[in-house]
Amino acid sequence: MPSVYDLSVSAEPTGLRERKKARTRAAISDTAIALFLAHGFERVPVVRVAAEAEVSKRTLFAYFPTKEDLVLHRFADHERELAEVVRRRAPEQSPLDALRAHVLDGLRRRDPITGLTDAAEPLAIQRMISQTPSLAARLLRYFASSEAALREALEEGDGMPYAEAQVTARVLAASVSSVLRALAEHNAARLTEGESADAVAPEAIAAVERAFALLRHGFGG
Fold this sequence. Notes:
- This protein is mainly α.
- It contains ten helices and no strands.
- 70% of the residues lie in helices and 0% in strands.
- Helix 5 (81-87) runs parallel beside helix 8 (133-155), helix 6 runs antiparallel to helix 10 and helix 8 (133-155) packs antiparallel against helix 9 (162-192).
- The chain is globular.
């Protein structure tokens, strides 16, 4: 539920050494995910992943500190994305407007982290995460890190007294993070039940609009 909303690997680095490291990292992760999807996350030992990827176990752990990171690094690669959306917004644009536009763009692109994708592998990965306690638990850590980064970005340059800015940023970051996870889970559940992304898309877009209206105006009405 990763754009933190893109399950693809980060942009290609520019230096030769960095490109080689990125290719090695991607090859290890791709090998691991293929094995996990074929045989089950808990049934495939790390040593087998290393052997299939033709690297040492030590090299594997240099790129991925835990077995769970072999799957979830695709979320970690983007955990500061919402914060950057806020920081890079136009001067006249509010944080909520920038985040709303970003999420709607993700839906239009069928970004896997929005839950709105028919692609087989992202759907299979999402199912594996939801069915594997250690993956689900570690995913929450990535979400928490993303929320913390968003909170820091929201605290910057708003002109409020520091204590007031902290409270506002903390509540808004928690609310936005929770809303985006809930909407992504809802989309993914519908697609898992057999609906197509194109069929779900209009309601998914309407749900984002409704959710951000609630974030903007509250539940008082």
